[in-house]
Amino acid sequence: MVTMKFKLSLGLxxxxxxxxSAHSQKQAEEVVPSIIExxxxxxxxxxxxxxxxVVIRIPASMIAKTLNRxxxxxxxxxxxxxxxxxNGQANCHGSVTCTLEDNSEGAAFCCRIEGTxxxxxxxxxxxxxIHSEAKTSYVAFKRIVFNGTNFISAPATITLxxxxxxxxxxxxxxxxxxxxxxxxxxxRAQQSHAQAEAxxxxxxxxxxxxxxxxxxxxxxxxxxxxxxxRLSLVEHFRTAGNEIFVRSFKDSVEIxxxxxxxxxxxxxxxxxxxxxxIELWIGHGRAEPSKEIPLTQVPALISLIGQAPHWLxxxxxxxxxxxxxxxxxxxxxxxxxxxxxxxxx
Length: 345
Known about the structure:
There is one protein chain. It contains 9 helices and 12 strands. The chain is of the alpha+beta class. It folds into 2 domains: 2-60 and 230-343, no CATH class; 63-226. The strands form 2 sheets. Strands 8-9-1-10-12-11 form a 6-stranded antiparallel β-sheet.
């Protein structure tokens, strides 16, 4: 058992160092007392039946930086309402607030978009020329979930109210015929105002929903692209053959792997405040909190936590950003029986 552990720790140490072969050999020799010391701390009996937990924590603040931006959109408007074909411009503005939910069975957050849509149009109905403006107040919600690989969203749900106002009626005909057209058009506009306003509300709902969905599709695409290098470890979770869990709290999203007999209730790291960067937590659930292990022995510690070394070594070897453990790329600390690697941006 000790010989196998030593080989794994040696492999990881070679991955995490960039010196010459002589320098690597010297470091490898220094690992031997580290393993012996750890065996004395943890106990050989416990090393034979290790429990492993590996958890990625994504701070809510990182998600908010991508999603919590005001929504603004301007588009041309082409409508036909009660036989009047109108063209114009619609300007949409909304303030966005996205908050993570407490969810023990997945990761989800809700985005609230509140704002207004103002449009001015000019339409024709026969010889009548109708100028109008509409103001819509709306509140929209977007629910966004993490499916284990990416963030995805459902279509927006919108509550709104539209106020339609006729600002002028002209005619393409001259003189008396023009005055008759304006008089008839004004009367008809008054009689059909409620119906026209209802139709305009329905059209605005469809247009606004499409704009918001398109905007957030782009934002979520940017978020997934930003997180992809950090979440590549999740693919190793799947091949490890153990339970994968995803959950969210007000300040973070957790994606983790558990080796039996560990249960989700054993992983309570969400109680520890999270900073602005993604964190990788590795714990074996055996080391005594009072026993401090120097950070110089991190490779030996990882090699002694059961199944983790096999796929962690592969992961670290394929990701150059983890090839060096220094203050510029990674920050390492201990929290009780956890090793915490903070990925610096």
